């Protein structure tokens, strides 16, 4: 679905002090992959590179096995760290944005698209809110609208940048259950940035850890827990072991 080979990126013109250095990654169709790393380790930058909002200094990015140089944004569904709902548009009109930006006959008539959005809003527990404005919604609801808008792009590869970072613990749990169910049904490939280790273990097939120093190399961890996943697994010895392992790898170098 996605492959990066030796990706390097620096914000400076002279390509000095790269934020990301020599990063390689392979993502298979239908996988749920979490990206973790300390703040400033380049997680959001990585998504901007995959989405084509930034160009790497070197590396080829392959999506669906094809080399993508331009228009990667057309190949992925990207949900940025801030929900970026337009405050002057209703829920329905916010969800229509991807269609408005990319009108093609193959993407259906406005009426069909609206009917589809209304079905999805119903499914997301937002049926009654289609004419509400973002400031009338709770944090969890806003995130669901932003997520729905991401799905409406119709892409198979979803890039979700800390989608639940700002939610309280209970809402976050509900959103996990909801996202796992949805992922099961829709057969999407998900790349998910989080700083919540339990969240990463609960949701993922694999976890990539970005290093705090770019030249230290990315680490990969397989989460061999059965599916469907459930919160009671938090107490499973294997789950606890994975969390300890992650904590060690993530923080051992940061705190000394
Ligand atoms: P993360 O999402 O892991 O917290 P980011 O990818 O947002 O990290 O940022 C990684 C590093 O790149 C940080 O040191 C940040 O200050 C720097 N950075 C982010 N965006 C820019 C930018 N537009 N110009 C220059 N430096 C940036
Ligand atoms: Mg970030």
Unique bound compounds: adenosine-5'-diphosphate, magnesium ion
Secondary structural class = alpha/beta
Task: Indicate the low-confidence ranges by residue numbers.
Answer: none
Domain count: the total is 2
Taking all residues together, what is the mean pLDDT? Answer: 89
Strand order of the largest sheet: 6-7-8-3-9-10
CATH structural fold name of the largest domain? Rossmann fold
Radius of gyration: 19 Å
**What would CATH call the homologous superfamily of the largest domain?**
P-loop containing nucleotide triphosphate hydrolases
**CATH class descriptor of the largest domain:** Alpha Beta
Helical content stands at 25-40%
Net shape: globular
Strand-residue fraction? 15-25%
Number of DSSP helices?
7
Biggest β-sheet strands, sense, barrel? 6 strands, mixed
SS elements, strand count: 10
Distance between the termini: 38 Å
Q: What's the arrangement of secondary structure elements?
A:
Elements (H helix, E strand, L loop, with lengths): L1 E8 L10 E8 L4 E5 L6 H9 L9 E3 L2 E2 L8 E4 L11 H11 L8 H14 L15 H14 L4 E5 L7 H18 L2 E5 L3 H7 L2 E4 L9 E4 L14 H15 L5
Parallel strand pairs: 3-8, 3-9, 6-7, 7-8
Antiparallel strand pairs: 1-2, 1-4, 4-5, 9-10
Adenosine-5'-diphosphate binds next to helix 1.
Descriptive terms for the model:
six-stranded mixed β-sheet; 2 domains; binds adenosine-5'-diphosphate; 34% helix; binds magnesium ion; Rossmann fold
């Amino acid at each position: 679905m996605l492959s990066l080979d030796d990706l390097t990126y620096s914000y400076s013109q002279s390509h000095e002090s790269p934020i990301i250095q020599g990063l390689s990654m392979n993502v298979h169709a239908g996988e749920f992959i979490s990206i973790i790393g300390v703040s400033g380790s380049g997680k959001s930058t990585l998504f901007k590179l995959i989405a084509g909002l930034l160009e790497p200094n070197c590396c080829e990015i392959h999506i669906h096995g094809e080399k993508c140089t331009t228009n990667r944004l057309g190949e992925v569904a990207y949900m940025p760290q801030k929900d970026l709902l337009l405050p002057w548009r209703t829920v329905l009109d916010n969800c229509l944005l991807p269609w408005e930006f990319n009108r093609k006959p193959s993407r259906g008539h406005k009426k069909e698209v609206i009917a589809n959005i209304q079905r999805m809003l119903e499914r997301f527990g937002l049926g009654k809110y289609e004419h509400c404005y973002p400031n009338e919604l709770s944090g969890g609801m806003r995130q669901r609208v932003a997520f729905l808008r991401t799905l409406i792009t119709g892409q198979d590869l979803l890039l979700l940048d800390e989608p639940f970072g700002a939610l309280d613990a209970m809402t976050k749990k509900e959103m996990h259950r909801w996202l796992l169910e949805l992922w099961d049904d829709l057969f999407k490939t998900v790349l998910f940035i989080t700083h919540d280790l339990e969240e990463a273990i609960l949701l993922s097939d694999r976890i990539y850890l970005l290093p705090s120093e770019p030249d230290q190399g990315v680490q990969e961890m397989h989460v061999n827990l059965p599916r469907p996943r459930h919160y009671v697994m938090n107490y499973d010895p294997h789950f606890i072991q994975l969390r300890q392992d992650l904590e060690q790898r993530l923080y051992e170098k940061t705190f000394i």
